[in-house]
Specification:
mainly alpha
Length: 82
């Protein structure tokens, strides 16, 4: 049986340090006020030792919509800079 990830019990400072991400940004993600990029979500899942499915469920992220939309927006912004 898989135990659901309880993000309220995760040490945000530890996650920020191990993912190389600003603590404020990790706090916004864990408070569900921001959505991580696909790369950051992968890093967070690895640090926590959970699957992407578990992480997405805990953060109320629909990986087929939210993460892809962010990646597409960032790719478009990078293309626009060139």
């Amino acid at each position: 049986m898989t135990t659901a990830l309880d993000i309220t019990k995760v040490n945000r400072s530890w996650v920020a340090r191990l993912t190389g991400t600003d603590l404020a940004h990790i706090s916004r993600i864990f408070s569900k006020k921001a959505t991580p990029s696909l790369v950051l979500a992968t890093r967070i899942a690895r640090v926590l030792g959970v699957s992407m499915d578990s992480l997405c469920e805990a953060l109320d992220i629909d990986p087929t919509k939210d993460l892809e939309a962010i990646q597409n927006a960032r790719a478009a912004a990078e293309t626009a800079k060139k």
